[in-house]
Amino acid sequence: MKHVTVAETTFMDGANSNSTAKPRGRPLHQMLVSFSAAYFAGALVTDLVYWQTPDVLWERFSIWLITAGLIVAGLAVVAYVIDLAGGRQITAPAWPRAIGYVLAVVLALVNAFVHSRDGYTAVVPTGLMLSGLVVIVLILTAWAGMALANRQRVGA
User: Fold this and answer.
1) Number of alpha carbons in the 13 Å side-chain half-sphere of residue 45
2) Omega before 27 cis (within 30°)?
3) Which residues contact 127 (CB under 8 A, 6 or more apart)?
4) How far is CA 121 from the centre of its chain?
5) d(Cα 123, Cα 21) in Å, to the nearest integer?
6) How many C-beta atoms lie closer than 10 Å to residue 40's C-beta?
7) pLDDT, the chain, mean
8) DSSP state at residue 123
9) Helix extents (H) in 22-115
10) Going by C-beta distance under 8 Å and a sequence separation of 6 or more, which residues neighbour residue 30?
11) 112 contacts 60 by C-beta, under 8 angstroms
C-alpha cells in the first residue's frame, strides 16, 4: 500500500477566480425545445391511437404528454433568458423560430384545456386537430428556421 504525502500547498491570493472556459455545444434552450416538440408529437400519436381505439388510457397519455411539453417549454424560455443574459451566442435568425414556437405553445395550452374535458369529445375531433396543428406549426417553424440559417450561411 502506497502513501501520498503533500509537500506543498499553494493558494491563489488576489487572482481572478472567473473561469475563462468557453461553453461548447448547443445552447440549453435549443435542447429543451427539442424535448417539448417530442412531447407534443407524442401527444398527436396518442390522440390518433385514442381516435382508433377509444380506451381512456390513451387520452390520459395525451394530456400528460401535453402537460410535460408545456412544462419543458417553460423551462426552455427560462433557459433562453439565461443564455441571453449570459451573453451566449444565439444562432441567428432567432425571431422566426421564437414566434413559431410561441404559437405552438399557445395552441398546446388551448389543447390542454380541450383535453381536460371528460369523454370522447374531449379529444375527437377538436383535440386531435389541435395536436396536429401544433406539430404542423413546429415542423414549419423548424423548416423556416433552417432555411433562413442556410440562406444566412450562404450569404456570409
Assistant:
1) 8
2) no
3) 47, 62, 111, 114, 115
4) 28
5) 49
6) 26
7) 84
8) T
9) 28-52, 56-85, 95-115
10) 91
11) no
Q: What is the pLDDT of residues 65-76, one digit of tens each?
A: 999 999 999 999
Q: Tell me the backbone φ, ψ of residue 124, rounded to 5 degrees.
A: -105, 125
DSSP-assigned letter for residue 117: S
Is 32 or 121 the better-scoring residue by pLDDT? 32
User: For the packed helices 28-52 and 56-85, what is the interaxial angle rounded to 10 degrees?
Assistant: 170
pLDDT for the residue 31: 87
Q: How many angstroms separate the Cα of 153 from the Cα of each of 87, 146, 149? A: 21, 10, 6
Phi, psi of 8 (to 5 degrees): -150, 140
Taking Cα atoms as reference points, which of 143, 142, 130, 137 lies closest to residue 43?
130
Residue 122 parent element (H or E) = none
Residue with cell 396543428: 133
C-alpha–C-alpha distance, residues 128 and 48, integer Å = 7
Identify whether the C-beta of residue 115 lies closer than 8 Å to the C-beta of residue 47: no
Copy the grid coordinates of residue 61. Answer: 397519455
